[in-house]
## 1
Amino acid sequence: MSAGPVIVLGAGGHAKVVIELLRASGHEVFGVLDADPTPRTVVDAPVIGDDSRLESLKAEGVTHAFIAIGDNGLRLRLGRKAQRAGLELVNAVSPFARVSPSARLGVGIAIMAGAVINAESDIRDLAIINTGAVIDHDGLICEAAHVAPGCALAGDVTVGQRAFLGVGSSVIPGRHIGEDAVVGAGACVVHDIPASALAMGVPARVTGRV
Ligand code: JB3
């Protein structure tokens, strides 16, 4: 069954991309909720209020939500809040992404144009697989993790909840990135990265804590 009208949370740059993905997949975008409820449009979608509107939207016929906010912790919290308000999370998957038929997807996931998700990978709720990123076979991308544009993850890579892989970073096969870790842009991960660590460079080295 196709999703009904979708409310999008967040009115920034990420929301612009997501709204266009939702429309390209045939979804109706009902409107946008933002912390700044000033009436305006986001790629022609109206900002209709802030999150206080969530509770009433189901009665207005809205059935689904998408959390279009890049902050991983906030996206996870808002996703669960939207579900508690009775809204289902929809996925925003570009028609120009390649998702293996054996890959498993949760809900509330953004998969941008040019992204590739290979065999038997597991992408959990509220993750972002950004423009042109590659998740090779048997990858595990946990809840609300963000794999930025141009990342390349070889086979059997695990990315923990709310972790962030910066633009163009790469990970060799079998490595684990811990929960809430941050990998800097262009880094090359050849060793496991501990939870909440900040790692950067080629090869990536832990330089601090997030
Ligand atoms: O790297 C790429 C390709 N995209 C980034 C994306 C994944 O994350 C992008 O470059 C940014 O780094 C970021 O995009 P985002 O989240 O759109 O950033 P920003 O432009 O700051 O927009 C965040 C929006 O969320 C703002 O309009 C805030 O007012 C809004 N916001 C903040 N807290 C909230 C809340 N909106 C709602 N509904 N609820 C909140 O609690």
## 2
Amino acid sequence: MEKIYFVSGIDTGVGKSFATGAMARFLRERGVAVTTLKLVQTGNEGFSEDIALHRTIMGVEPTVEDRELITAPQIFKFPSSPHLAAELESRKFEPSAVDAALETLLKKYSPVLVEGAGGLAVPLSGEELTIDFAAARSWPLILVSSGRLGSLNHTILSIEAAAARNMRVAGVVYNYCDEADPVIDRDTPRMIIRALERHGYPPALVRLDKIVPGGKVTSDFSAIFGMDGTRESFRKKMVMSDYKLHRNLERDRKVLWHPYASATNPPPVFFASGAAGTRIRISEGKTLIDGVSSWWCMCHGHNHPHIVEMIRRQAESLTQVMFAGFTHEPAIRLAEQMNRRTPPGLKKLFFVDSGSVAVECALKLAIEYQQAAGFPARRRFATVRGGYHGDTFAAMSVSDPGGMHRMFSGMTAENFFAPRPECRFGDEWDPEDFAAMERLLDEHARETAAVIIEPIFQGANGMRFYHPQYLRELRRACTERGILLILDEVATGFGRLGRFFAAEYAEVVADIVCIGKGLTGGALPLAAVISSEAVAERVSDGDPGILMHGPTFMANPLACAAGCASLELFDEYDWRLRVREIESALRSGLGALRTEDNVADVRVLGAVGVLELRRMPTPERVHAAALESGVWLRPFGSWLYTMPPFITPPEEIGRIIDAMAALARVDK
Ligand code: PLP
């Protein structure tokens, strides 16, 4: 039970004082040292008739505190809203008088039921409404409603106003009223309970039975005060915000299916109620540092004001238009801005809505190119083991066959796989590392349309960095055989490894590049295929001379506006320096964990830090650890990794490293 409850009507004259008195009597009869206080009394002089009514219903004499006017610290003569009543006496409502009275009462009583004046929106002074006064003090709210016409509207509005201020609603007292229409009287309580549940409040609605002053109180208010067994233990465990959270997660489980998860036995999830910068808010007052940039895309942090503002402005003029038959400013501008960042020759940009679809589209483009070039048999792809290019079928067909999609083996197109590059980034180049790929291309040159590879960093199926020379060899080998080179920069583009594109480490220019994730700074879904002029011209000169692809939401104006804003940000701060600083912190912090029993390998490049573990923590352990450490990490396979937003300050990088260290040490 709380120390203070705020009892408000949903309107004036709904029986607030009766309800307050009845609740106080109910508690008193159960041995609880309860008392009541009137927030502000109007229409009286020198005494409070509401407090007097409470005492009559409670069946007690006025207390010492009543006589000393502690339980009614502010009384005004004129029967009106407190702000007006006070003004007519050239006085003011004094919040400190209420706080002082409560301080005195709480020495002897608990709880104190504070009865308001009228409804929640009643002004206490020129500036402050009753609800704001109560919300600022975090008082749980008990609403008194009734069965009269119009009450439902007022009750639901009151519940919504409380929810909007993050107030706890302990329950609703429903004042049964004689003149209520029986049909309305049946419906109203049901609808009130629904409104409570909708906002994650306990469905605590108690009917106030008719009260004869001095007679018995028969209503059972235990649900409101958490005195029934289940709610009591429930309340002990959770504060209200957690209760709301719990309700939201229950709703989630009924209707949603999360990625890479069971629908019936899903792993735990957090409820994200907002995000800013490096933090995701998971409940009132609780945030998690986003250690994985929300699946590697949030380069400048969450809800960056510039990106949000550009999306907002764009929303005022054009949110979506089909890209067949139309074009628009954000798409043109974003393509122009990308053009300035890609090597000359990589010119034509085709927007899609996700990285996987960018890969699909790039593969189709390669087939179309080879057809147009007179090599229709070239319809397959070569790649390396340990790669990942997305979850759609063609993307799976070029991802590691033994990796996360192995359950679909045999159902995807057959492509050619060379062993993964073994020579690490930073090690001395071993020419042998490329030999197997060279042989593979020799063997299948006549069937191979393109090689697709993630440049420098194999992500979701490997979390490894390889030698840039591998890419140079690949470029040479492809050119020699008329095979296209597709670089999948979906994960590595936009600065993640310390260069704007990872291919810059090898100074290699692809024929086709896939981008996604960081393209909008992570704010909205957008991806693209960038094609060389040569490929674009060849396909367009061929038969039928068109790129056979066209997603409904391609080049969505809001996403393009976000993309423009994000690229502007890359010019505004020294992101390279930030990535270098993150890299050196990760090198020393994660490097120190090499000696841990459970750590098989440590790899760092740019703003990516990976611990390869021998034993992985369970999803439940990861979830609990996030709450303990305040850091969000999502280990998978045998990798515990971080890819923080570039704006993450050193202190938070330190916390990420500590959280990784704690998880790496976990035994099971
Ligand atoms: N390509 C690479 C290299 C990726 O890392 C990913 C996603 O992680 C994709 C493609 C697929 O992108 P999306 O999840 O947007 O479909």
